């Protein structure tokens, strides 16, 4: 074949291009930023607030059911059949959780911007902080006795 490419050549070339574009073998997962365990969780939507209550009701009516998919399907069907008036309490609950989340996120972002380490504040209890102060006071008292 003069100047022509075989099927194998074009297929391999296309595969190579896709692999280069995806960055295969470059260790992209290692470059992913670690998730901060102190960051507040996002609030649930109105549907998930509804599902918290629905799961309990479904479990009472069907105690022998072990399928998560069946519960989800039944909950989704009921949610679709509900009117906006029926959904209103769940929407209100979701909005309430969203405002709480926004408050927590504002405090979290303030701590990050302030440069304080979030772990230091939460790991020490008040008694541990007071213990540190008491040790300093005791050492100061011993110095006074020496004089």
Automatic annotation (TrEMBL):
<feature type="region of interest" description="Disordered">
    <location>
        <begin position="58"/>
        <end position="83"/>
    </location>
</feature>
<dbReference type="GO" id="GO:0003682">
    <property type="term" value="F:chromatin binding"/>
</dbReference>
<dbReference type="InterPro" id="IPR036910">
    <property type="entry name" value="HMG_box_dom_sf"/>
</dbReference>
<dbReference type="GO" id="GO:0006325">
    <property type="term" value="P:chromatin organization"/>
</dbReference>
<dbReference type="InterPro" id="IPR031061">
    <property type="entry name" value="HMGB_plant"/>
</dbReference>
<keyword id="KW-0539">Nucleus</keyword>
<feature type="region of interest" description="Disordered">
    <location>
        <begin position="1"/>
        <end position="45"/>
    </location>
</feature>
<protein>
    <submittedName>
        <fullName>HMG1/2-like protein</fullName>
    </submittedName>
</protein>
<comment type="similarity">
    <text>Belongs to the HMGB family.</text>
</comment>
<feature type="DNA-binding region" description="HMG box">
    <location>
        <begin position="40"/>
        <end position="109"/>
    </location>
</feature>
<dbReference type="InterPro" id="IPR009071">
    <property type="entry name" value="HMG_box_dom"/>
</dbReference>
<dbReference type="GO" id="GO:0005634">
    <property type="term" value="C:nucleus"/>
</dbReference>
<dbReference type="GO" id="GO:0003677">
    <property type="term" value="F:DNA binding"/>
</dbReference>
<feature type="region of interest" description="Disordered">
    <location>
        <begin position="108"/>
        <end position="147"/>
    </location>
</feature>
<keyword id="KW-0238">DNA-binding</keyword>
<feature type="domain" description="HMG box">
    <location>
        <begin position="40"/>
        <end position="109"/>
    </location>
</feature>
<dbReference type="GO" id="GO:0030527">
    <property type="term" value="F:structural constituent of chromatin"/>
</dbReference>
<feature type="compositionally biased region" description="Acidic residues">
    <location>
        <begin position="134"/>
        <end position="147"/>
    </location>
</feature>
<dbReference type="GO" id="GO:0000785">
    <property type="term" value="C:chromatin"/>
</dbReference>
<feature type="compositionally biased region" description="Basic and acidic residues">
    <location>
        <begin position="123"/>
        <end position="133"/>
    </location>
</feature>
<dbReference type="Pfam" id="PF00505">
    <property type="entry name" value="HMG_box"/>
</dbReference>
């Amino acid at each position: 074949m003069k100047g022509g490419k075989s099927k194998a050549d074009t297929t391999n070339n296309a595969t190579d291009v896709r692999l280069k574009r995806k960055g295969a073998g470059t260790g992209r997962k290692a470059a992913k930023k670690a998730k901060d365990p102190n960051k507040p969780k996002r609030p649930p939507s109105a549907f998930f607030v509804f599902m918290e209550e629905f799961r309990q009701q479904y479990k009472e009516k069907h105690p022998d059911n072990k399928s998560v998919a069946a519960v989800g399907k039944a909950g989704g069907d009921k949610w679709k059949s509900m009117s906006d008036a029926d959904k209103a309490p769940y929407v209100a609950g979701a909005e309430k959780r969203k405002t709480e989340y926004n408050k927590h996120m504002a405090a979290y972002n303030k701590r990050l911007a302030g440069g304080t380490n979030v772990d230091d504040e939460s790991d020490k209890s008040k008694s541990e902080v007071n213990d540190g102060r008491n040790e300093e006071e005791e050492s100061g008292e011993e110095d006074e006795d020496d004089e």
